[in-house]
Design goal:
Number of strands: 0
Mean pLDDT: 79
Shape: globular
Low-confidence stretches: 9-16
Structural class: mainly alpha
Helix content: 55-70%
Length: 71
């Protein structure tokens, strides 16, 4: 969680494309994946985490959650 919050910090997030809410795209995909997995939509969650990883290959949290929802 600390790494995730650090990514949202203005000094780090300025290097990432952002949505209107100010979150980097990979964070938005990651959060969508978390929401989908909590609803039992594991295939959709897997796709969202894969998108987050495509945007940032070093996004450790997305890799970890991808491993949890992958079938």
């Amino acid at each position: 969680l600390f790494l995730l919050l650090n990514k949202i910090d203005g000094t780090l997030s300025s290097a990432y494309p952002t949505l209107s809410y100010g979150f980097p795209l990979e964070i938005s995909e990651f959060l969508q994946g978390l929401s989908l997995s909590s609803l039992g939509e594991y295939a959709k969650a897997e796709e969202a985490h894969k998108k987050a990883i495509q945007l940032d290959r070093s996004f450790v949290e997305a890799w970890a959650h991808l491993a949890q929802v992958s079938t």
